[in-house]
Amino acid sequence: MFVVHCQDKPGAQQLRIDNRANHLEYLKSHLDKVVMAGPVQTEDRTGMVGSVLVLDFPTREELDAFLAGDPYARAGLFAAVTVLPYKKVLP
């Protein structure tokens, strides 16, 4: 499993909005791999500035291929993507 934190480029709110439906459909088409996913919000919770995903892929290579196919990534939304191996312990 992996935890993925994607940070949007500054000022990219419209790019996120324009690609959101395709991004959600992409995730839904891979629900067997998505443990959880959702947007990172601004402090006042009125906007979105990134994404956090917990994904269950057996290898980093398979994860990277999945991430590269995400409509957000293809649109160039992210300034940075951090990937960390993850082991669920609780609950």
Describe the sheet with the most strands: 4 strands, antiparallel
Compute the gyration radius: what is it? 13 Å
> How many domains comprise the coordinates?
1
User: Spans of 5+ residues with little confidence (pLDDT < 50)?
Assistant: none
> How much of the polypeptide forms β-strand, as a percent range?
25-35%
- CATH arch. level architecture: 2-Layer Sandwich
Number of strands: 4
Stated plainly, the CATH topology is called: Alpha-Beta Plaits
What level of helicity do the residues show? 25-40%
The CATH first-level class comes to: Alpha Beta
The N- to C-terminal Cα distance equals 15 Å
Element order, helices and strands? EHEEHHE
Look at the structure and name the CATH superfamily. Dimeric alpha+beta barrel
Which structural category do the helix and sheet elements fall into?
A: alpha+beta
Discrete helix count: 3
Q: Which descriptor suits the 3D outline?
A: globular
Average pLDDT: 97
Q: For the largest beta sheet, what order do the strands appear in spatially?
A: 2-3-1-4
